[in-house]
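A quick aside before the break. I want you to see a complete sequence-to-structure record at least once, exactly as it would be stored in a machine-readable document. Don't worry about memorizing anything.
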Amino acid sequence: MTKSKKEQEEVLQDELKEEEVVEEEIKEPCEDKEEPPKEDWENKYLRLAADFMNYKKRSEKERQDTHVYANERLLSSLLEVLDSFDRAISQGQDEEDPTLKGMVLIKKQLWTALNNAGLEEIQSLGTYFDPEFHDAFMLDDTAQMESGRITEVYEKGYIFHKKVLRHAKVKVAE
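That is the input. The structure line, written in tokens, reads:
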């Protein structure tokens, strides 16, 4: 059931003719299809370029935010150390005590490093209560202060790069 050489040659000839016809069709310019106007291509290019620029800006901002807030957890734990220094220093009775002086110096050094990293203390005492920065811990029945003013700070609050890291716990005048 094999084909003869002549039949095989005829089949090959037919295939070659079909390929030539296809090649000619490819080489001929398509008259049916219209090319889009140049303005469409320019608009598409401009939109693509704008999308890419927006992507680059967004990626850069996300990278910077990640870098800035990467140390947030570490700073939160260091706030407890600052609080411990404040409590220990407030318990010292003799200002000439070398241990107390050393603790004050170490606290200042730690605070300077944290401040340079972007940490700021929320100023609370005597200001009006602001729920964005303060947690009302107690109400104070005092006539010495105007209603809504903070009379006492129980725990300092801190801001890190315009974001509240810890709210200040305060006593507010009624």
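Two observations worth writing down. DSSP finds four helices and six strands in the chain. The CA atoms of residues 14 and 142 lie 108 Å apart. We'll return to this after the break.
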